């Protein structure tokens, strides 16, 4: 989490620093990213950087967290649009990632260099890793009558499975530079298999 001095910056200076960090994390994965490049692009000193962030990981996860918040809001809007239909929501959500423009290379670098901490951040776009208040809020928006689940525990695990399918398909699409229509077709095939079930 950035330090208070970062949040106290004027908006233009804050945005300049965010843009510089995003530029660096878009050109290199976290472990290869350079604070020197960030401060050069932002026009600040190394000392100033450490007044705002603990280290480059702090800056990276702030950016990823902000991206996740934005996408979580979009996910909830889609869920409302489709009257709680979780499958149609996930299909639209997947397409939203493929339409990313401004954050595309940042997103690719994050997904193609996945760590447990990065995975947790992506998971929180949809639901947490445990049944809690946030998950209960999400449950209240899902049309469970369209799903073959008997309680919130089964719904929780169903959401974990679908989220895993989403992330795996995104990683595969980015790793192999799949055309958008092919990536969507692959994802929809797997979603339809989940909808039908795999046992006769």
TrEMBL record:
All residue ranges annotated as the HTH tetR-type domain in the record: 11-71
Record PROSITE patterns: HTH_TETR_2
Gene3D superfamilies: Tetracycline Repressor, domain 2
Top-level lineage group: Bacteria
DNA-binding region: 34-53
InterPro entries: Homeodomain-like_sf, HTH-type_Tx_Regulator, HTH_TetR
Keywords: DNA-binding, Repressor
GO MF annotation: an example: DNA binding
Family annotation (PANTHER family): ACREF/ENVCD OPERON REPRESSOR-RELATED, ACREF_ENVCD OPERON REPRESSOR-RELATED
Protein name: TetR/AcrR family transcriptional regulator
